[in-house]
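tokens incoming
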């Protein structure tokens, strides 16, 4: 099936018991049994349900839909993207483990690897993002996880996913990939050799900026390990937001295609503007990894960033002058959002760490929505005129 057909129909047959066309919301914390002998099967996860922190039929449908989209064996849904990331990481590390990651990471993930894991005695290294040679040199005997994002947040750098998978596997480690920025419409890391794909479902999957959710997709044994860790860490997704993500996903293919097209047009407009010092978008021929983007991505995505020529306050002037786009954190929704990583999404980093990853004060990140592209270009033109 194609992406649009799959988005509408995958894992969502009509409800046999009632005829309900739409997936029911099983908003229940627990499940009752008429036969006590059925309990062990439900507890082991083989058949039936026990308790909604463990498993729930509405949440299951979201997991099945995402399993199909990412080409995995199973999935685990979480109450946030960070819950999906932390639980998946903890599912595969143990005493004495080493985690190797790229330097350009979402702020929360950066903090997990930079502060939280070292704080409990686990070794981590963050290395240069675009050079897989740095990953090759960075793996150790005790490396259990190689962790990457591609494209990265907020500078849209790419990591060669297939190469990173080979490096991880040669070292006996797993490759975990945060695919939030691309969405499954534009990139499928499992097909490139990754072991676990992570999403902040808050973003492109749901697409409507009205909830927080996350998901991890992998083969069946790894998903089982993640689900077992989820039982203990407890960051399971509630059935109501799971249902909202399912509803949002029905238009995911349509939305993302529009976002891809709008982002390409906006990136091209910004590239030719004299008040813009640099534009980062994998769909631009000038992007240093454009050839890699063509190889491993099906579309170039709805995210871009650019440097306003000037200082922090010049970029602030731009963001507050916009009329169609809003100044807000988060991404992947139908509305265009702009943010300044230096004072919003990446405050966990020191200035030195930010500059090392190419994130000056004047950098503006754009999550391109589905509005008419002419309105977006006009809005950005007026915003730059105000600088
Ligand atoms: C790339 C990326 N990964 C993970 C997350 C964390 O997701 P959540 O906010 O749903 O916990 C975010 C949030 O912005 C993100 O941008």
């Amino acid at each position: 099936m194609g992406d649009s057909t799959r988005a509408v129909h995958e894992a969502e047959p009509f409800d046999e018991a009632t005829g309900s066309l739409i997936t029911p919301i099983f908003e229940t914390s627990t499940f009752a049994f008429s036969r006590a002998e059925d309990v062990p099967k439900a507890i082991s996860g083989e058949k039936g349900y026990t308790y909604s922190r463990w498993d729930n039929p509405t949440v299951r449908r979201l997991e099945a839909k995402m399993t199909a989209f990412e080409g995995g064996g199973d999935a685990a849904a979480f109450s946030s993207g960070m819950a999906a990331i932390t639980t998946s990481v903890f599912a595969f590390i143990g005493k004495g483990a080493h985690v190797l990651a790229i330097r350009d990471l979402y702020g929360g993930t950066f903090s997990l690897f930079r502060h939280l894991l070292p704080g409990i005695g686990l070794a981590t290294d963050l290395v240069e993002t675009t050079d897989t040679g740095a990953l090759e040199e960075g793996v150790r005997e005790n490396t259990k996880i190689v962790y990457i994002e591609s494209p990265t947040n907020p500078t849209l750098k790419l990591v060669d996913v297939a190469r990173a998978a080979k490096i991880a596997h040669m070292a006996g480690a797993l490759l975990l990939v945060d695919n939030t920025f691309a969405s499954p419409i534009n990139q499928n890391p499992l097909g490139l050799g990754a072991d676990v794909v992570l999403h902040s479902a808050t973003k492109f999957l749901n697409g409507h900026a009205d909830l927080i959710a996350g998901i991890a997709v992998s083969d069946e044994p790894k998903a089982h390990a993640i689900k077992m860790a989820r039982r203990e860490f407890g960051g399971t997704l509630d059935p109501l937001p799971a249902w909202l993500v399912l509803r949002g996903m029905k238009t995911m293919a349509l939305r993302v295609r529009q976002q891809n097209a709008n982002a390409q047009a906006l990136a091209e407009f910004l590239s030719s503007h004299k008040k813009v010092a640099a534009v980062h978008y994998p769909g631009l021929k000038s992007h240093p990894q454009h050839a890699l983007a063509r190889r491993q991505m099906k579309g170039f995505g709805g995210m871009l960033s650019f440097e306003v020529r000037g200082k922090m306050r010049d970029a602030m002037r731009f963001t507050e002058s916009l009329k169609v786009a809003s100044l807000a954190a988060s991404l992947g929704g139908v509305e265009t959002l702009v943010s300044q990583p230096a004072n919003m999404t990446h405050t966990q980093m020191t200035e030195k760490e930010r500059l090392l990853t190419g994130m000056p004060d004047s950098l503006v990140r754009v999550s391109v929505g589905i509005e008419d592209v002419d309105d977006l270009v006009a809005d950005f033109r007026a915003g730059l005129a105000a600088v």
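note: The domain at 252-385 is CATH 3.90.1150.10 (Aspartate Aminotransferase, domain 1).
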